[in-house]
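Re: Re: ligand-bound prediction request (bumping)

Still looking for help on this. To restate: I need the protein modeled with adenosine-5'-triphosphate bound, output as structure tokens. Inputs repeated here so nobody has to scroll up.
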Amino acid sequence: MGILVAIEGLDGAGKRTIVGRIHNEATARGARVTTFTFPRYGESITADLASEALHGEHGDLRDSVYGMAIMFALDRAAAGTALRTACADHDLVLCDRYVASSAAYSAARLGETIGSSPVVDWVADLEYGRFRLPTPDHQLLLGVPPEVAMARSSGRAATDADRPMDHYERDRDLQAGVYRAYSDLAASGWMSTWSHAADDEAVAAVLDRLG
Ligand SMILES: Nc1ncnc2c1ncn2[C@@H]1O[C@H](COP(=O)(O)OP(=O)(O)OP(=O)(O)O)[C@@H](O)[C@H]1O
Ligand SMILES: Cc1cn([C@H]2C[C@H](O)[C@@H](COP(=O)(O)O)O2)c(=O)[nH]c1=O
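Reply:
Sorry for the wait, this slipped through. Here it is.
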């Protein structure tokens, strides 16, 4: 049975880049590694609908914090069996975003404080309770602050016409609130142990778990 590690962080923080590094370095050490990226765009209609909402479609869907969280949760729930099978067949299963994304973004959107947040409890009940998603063995918060992550998102949008900034990515106050929420989730050890690190330290924090 392998370990499930979730990589979390702001839009544009560099999650995909660090997941790629961890995947390659763990594979080079002989580990059997696989990666899931949430939302599963192109594979899941609920993921695509959520993205379309973040880019201005589907009326007032994006205004609903709980509505958006349900869309992301349904996408993950549909991947539950594949996640469990992957954990049985691999040494390391990496998730580029997982349940904590909904906890952090929803708490920040509602201005709730981690530790006394109804929406964070609701996300945990829905996804780990009702949908029975596997809990991560470890979560990594990529320690890239909002101003750096937003500069990377806007740089990417300027050079890649397929990656325009969405409603959340353009919102400076939201990004700052999400980073605070993530930092508090990590500090409180929400649902697993956490590392809060960047660059080589972030890669090492995950590889160390492989033993
Ligand atoms: N350590 C780094 N230093 C400088 N630029 C970086 C670094 N890591 C990633 N980038 C660049 O920042 C941009 C965002 O990186 P990436 O796609 O990995 O982020 P992400 O967190 O997965 O983004 P999103 O959640 O929005 O999909 C890319 O253009 C990438 O090349
Ligand atoms: C998986 C997931 C995502 N979100 C938020 C985070 C981002 O701002 C957007 C889209 O995700 P992407 O990684 O930029 O493609 O949605 C969320 O609130 N809850 C989630 O579970």
